[in-house]
Specification:
single chain; alpha+beta; Aminopeptidase; six-stranded mixed β-sheet
């Protein structure tokens, strides 16, 4: 049975834990990234990126630890990361739905080399609207630009 997850707003004091969740998630799903690049991004996530978005998270109801989080800015999901121990429990879907319904997020980018994430976003109703050959840091990790496709009414 899937649990209903509550949405929380993380505090500045949660940034270290959010960064740990980010790293665990990236290491589980982004095996194409070298360790040196993950370490560089980790510092940027902790020191810059988390502060640049509206953050939401879900917490384990027993331990109260953050199990996943999303960050939204200007109508775009800039980050959605789930701790590997909590994948497949509906947290990503819950966070994405809240980001779309409450924070008006309709677009996102996903690494082309992350087929699990691409499949997840397609199942949630997103479609490809563009592509970049390099990531936001100018590195050769292609991105797909996705936008939510509103269901057509019959």
């Amino acid at each position: 049975m899937q649990q209903k997850w509550a949405i929380h707003t993380p505090r500045l004091t949660d940034f270290d834990e959010l960064t740990d969740v980010w790293e665990a998630s990236v290491r589980a799903t982004h095996d194409f990234l070298p360790d040196s690049y993950i370490q560089l991004l980790r510092q940027l996530v902790r020191d810059q990126y988390l502060d640049a978005v509206m953050l939401i998270c879900c917490k384990d109801p027993v331990t109260k630890r953050i199990s996943g989080f999303a960050g939204v800015a200007a109508g775009k999901v800039e980050m959605l990361f789930i701790h590997p121990h909590f994948r497949g429990q509906g947290i990503g879907k819950c966070l994405l739905k809240f980001a779309m319904d409450e924070l008006n997020a309709q677009a996102l980018d996903v690494n082309l080399q992350n087929p699990q994430a691409i499949g997840f976003y397609f199942k949630q109703g997103f479609e490809i609207v563009g592509r970049s050959e390099k990531d936001g840091m100018g590195q050769p990790y292609p991105l797909l630009h996705l936008r939510y496709k509103r269901p057509t009414r019959a």
